Amino acid sequence: MFPNLLTLSRIFSIPFIVACFFIEGFWSHLTAAVLFVIACITDFFDGYLARQRKQVSALGRFMDPVADKLLVSTILLMLSGTGVIFGVHLLAAAIILAREIIVSGLREFMSQMRLIIPVTKYAKWKTAMQMASISCLLCSAMFPDISELKSIGIILLWFAVVMTVFTGARYLRFGILRISDKSFSENKKQSDILKMR
């Protein structure tokens, strides 16, 4: 299905964006920025088209957040490694990466218990904020003389951190409550079975 192809294209774009970091010059920075922006656009259209065409699938629901996390996390690492993100701002990147790992682990654990964490609108805003920040930081590498670009990117990065912590806390709370409810239900069932015996 076309929406799933858009999602996969976001993943396939990552190696090409990373490769641009190892090539000096304006055009490599421009290519990285353009590829990233295109990837961000597919993040909107894959879900939109899937809903419009009624082609929402389990694969799409699984791959969409995975593609977002891979894209954002990888480029944040590259921006940190090349010094675009530096100093105390590395903490912002670390918080975002840690949150993505924790939530991914929680999703995997809950899937084993046949529980699902729904993607919220706040999580979508968080991803949009992260992508806007990274777009500005990528553009700042093209125009190093325009310090305002990097400043805007860093400010947006910290706003993204706030959203990241907020949504991460919501997911953890939701996950813990669902796990507790399921554990209680399973224990009650086992207790009822023992009573029947």
Relevant terms:
197 residues, mainly alpha, Four Helix Bundle (Hemerythrin (Met), subunit A), disordered C terminus
Describe this protein's structure:
- This protein is an all-alpha fold and 197 residues long.
- It has a single domain, classed as Up-down Bundle (Four Helix Bundle (Hemerythrin (Met), subunit A)), CATH 1.20.120.1760.
- It is 84% helix and 0% strand.
- It is built from 6 helices and no strands.
- It has helices at 2-20, 26-52, 58-81, 89-112, 121-142, 147-196.
- It is globular, with a radius of gyration of 20 Å.
- The protein starts with a helix and ends with a helix.
- Mean pLDDT is 83; it is low at 187-197.
Indicate the topology.
Layout: H1 2-20, H2 26-52, H3 58-81, H4 89-112, H5 121-142, H6 147-196
Helix pairs in contact: 1-2, 1-3, 2-3, 2-5, 3-4, 3-5, 4-6, 5-6
Unreliable stretches covering 5 or more consecutive residues = 187-197
Give me the count of strands.
Answer: 0
The CATH architecture category equals Up-down Bundle
CATH class: Mainly Alpha
Looking at CATH, the homologous superfamily is CDP-alcohol phosphotransferase transmembrane (TM) domain
Largest sheet: none
Mean pLDDT: 83
- Beta-strand percentage range: under 5%
Continuous helix count: 6
Terminus-to-terminus distance: 52 Å
Output the helix-strand order: HHHHHH
Cα gyration radius (Å): 20 Å
Structural class: mainly alpha
Proportion of helical residues: over 70%
Quick synopsis:
The chain is mainly alpha-helical.
